[in-house]
Amino acid sequence: MASLIHTLALKVWDYHHLDHSLEKSDCIFVLCSNDTRVAERAAQLYLQGYAPFIVFSGGVGELTQNLFSGSEAEAFANIAIDLGVPETAILVEPHSTNTGQNVEFTRALLEQKGLNPDTFILVQKPFMERRTYATFMKQWPGKQAIVTSPQISFDDYPNDQITYSDVINVMLGDLQRIDAYPARGFSIEQDIPQDVWQAFEQLVHHGFNEHLI
């Protein structure tokens, strides 16, 4: 059974990855969370010269209520600064609590600062790449986006913040939202191959239903 669960979960994990090739862009846009490895990935990209500034977006969510002393964005910004990103190259949006708000509030912040980037590198958790892209393209049409995430395998991803079961549950919740949210106007359509959806259904049947709509 464990082997079957792993095989099914890996299929969903792989689907969530877009495998975009990185290109120099106008802005690194980080969708914050409980996973500080995302902040490390963003700092790495900045230090490699992929964009002239970083926006960290994220308030306090269910998973970060007692994790950081302030907002997710402030915590991620501090990590980036510790890794060598100059504070002058960082903007912080500390109020959003979902992916749609990440885009909406960041767009407003950049407009307030007189900034109008055309190309973005979106940095997110590995299993949220596809939904982040679909949401961004719906909420901010006319822009170009590449999505990336910490370069970690499915087997190596769980840590003291998120268990193996948690990863599967959240991945399935995101897959369901990729399917459901276009009809609600939240994101653009994404093709879901039949074998991926079958893996979703089998994993839900095995009890991985904690983050479903």
UniProtKB/TrEMBL annotation:
Q: What range(s) does the DUF218 domain occupy?
A: 26-142
Look up the domain of life of the source: Bacteria
- How is this protein annotated for GO cellular component? plasma membrane
Which residue ranges run through the membrane? none
Family matches, as Gene3D superfamilies: HUPs
Write down the InterPro entries for this protein, in alphabetical order. Answer: Cell_Envelope_Assoc (IPR051599), DUF218 (IPR003848), Rossmann-like_a/b/a_fold (IPR014729)
Q: What is this protein called?
A: YdcF family protein
- Species: Photobacterium sanctipauli
